[in-house]
Amino acid sequence: MNSENKNDQKHQEKMAKQKAKVDAAIARADKEQGVVIVLTGTGKGKSSSGFGTLLRSMGHGNKVGLVQFIKGNWGDGAVVGERAMFQEMPLMTHKMMGSGFTWETQDKSKDQEAFDHIWPQAKAMLQDESIHTVMFDELTYMLAYKLLAWEDLKEALESRPKMQNVIITGRGAPSALRDFADTVTDMKSEKHAFQAGIKAQAGIEW
Amino acid sequence: MNSENKNDQKHQEKMAKQKAKVDAAIARADKEQGVVIVLTGTGKGKSSSGFGTLLRSMGHGNKVGLVQFIKGNWGDGAVVGERAMFQEMPLMTHKMMGSGFTWETQDKSKDQEAFDHIWPQAKAMLQDESIHTVMFDELTYMLAYKLLAWEDLKEALESRPKMQNVIITGRGAPSALRDFADTVTDMKSEKHAFQAGIKAQAGIEW
Fold first, then answer.
1. Chain A interface includes B185 (CB < 8 A)
2. What average pLDDT score do residues B81-93 get?
């Protein structure tokens, strides 16, 4: 056997092992239910990952719901790229928190009012069996700033339709939420272009 | 001052501080250039995050390019949700590696052939100034299985148009690529529904 053939064989064995692992994991996982996915951490990619998953879901013909709890904070009037796309997607119901919570507002009672206005609409999505996946973008900040109590969120999640999926994004997901969730990804920022003085740009950061 | 007002003031100070931090960081970052973003790690969300960013870019009217180096590995014939959506997006050029590298093939020379066929097309995207953002989905495996040499990738990235962004996804990004990149997010899997025996489902996992 020449060395190329040996290499080929090694590669084949490696791939077969990998395939066996994947197949076994698939066979073991037989509970059918919707999942709660938490995308947290300081790294870039939390919201865009959620949007990508909604895209995936819609690609299968499913209805999805998205509630954005924080307005883009890259400057007033900036057109946020994904929103232009969402408007073209008939399978998506998209809501944004009214007055637009941002770092700019600095007014807790106004924020609470805006939250109290949007929350019943968000909860309604969690009661709608026709919605395959609900995404609450940047919801963790609502917990951190105590606009929303964990117990209220938990109750809403627990009483949702069994097959519905929920994606929750934002930094600093509290441990109660992490414990409750089925899938948690902690996006660690190893480095960010911003730190090297590279300007944030439309189409990447917003 | 009653306790609610005190709380409000505290909140306002916290928000103002946060806003000042964000503003200062924005002011410091004045280099205008495209960035190389690496989304790696074992957590769920790497590819979907890249797709979400492409969506964002297209929402600003930009052209994007996507090359997928691994075919979905959730079973033959599975309709992969995002692909159905991509086909409806006139701003996206979408290519897939020919024979479809998966854990199923187990044939290195066939994989190399398929890679050698797609790579010139991928490189052509890196030479096309009209493409705002290029995504190479699961490219890290091509490096890991030595179908692609780091030096070749590096050269292609270095000679691309100055304002072009590149997103590279996949587990186990090598350190040379991490060092080269402008932004690196390491997506740590804290837990995954799969491990708790929950079946993977269309619209979430593929």
1. yes
2. 88
Distance of residue A204 Cα from the nearest chain B Cα, in angstroms: 6
Instruction: With beta carbons under 8 A apart, name residues in chain A contacting B43.
Output: 185-187
Of A19, A51, A57, the CB nearest to B81: A57
User: In this structure, what CATH number is given to the domain that contains residue B66?
Assistant: 3.40.50.300
Which three-class secondary structure state does DSSP give residue A132?
Answer: strand
Q: What's this model's pTM, rounded to 2 decimal places? A: 0.84
**Cβ–Cβ under 8 Å, residues B85 and A57:** no
Same domain, B108 and B12: no
Helical axes B3-28 vs A108-125, angle rounded to 10°: 80
B64 and B105 both lie in a single domain: yes
Interchain proximity B55–A85, CB inside 8 Å: yes
pLDDT at A124: 98
Are residues A76 and A152 located together in one domain of the fold? yes
Query: Is the Cβ–Cβ distance between A129 and A164 less than 8 Å?
Result: yes
Give the closest-approach CA distance of B98 to chain A in angstroms.
18
ipTM of the complex: 0.79
Cβ <8 Å between A193 and B18: no
Tell which wins on pLDDT, A88 or A75: A88
Closest to B121 in 3D by CA, of B143, B90, B96: B96
User: Residue B138: which domain range?
Assistant: 33-189
Would residue A103 count as lying in a domain?
Answer: yes
Is the domain of A110 the same as that of A141?
yes
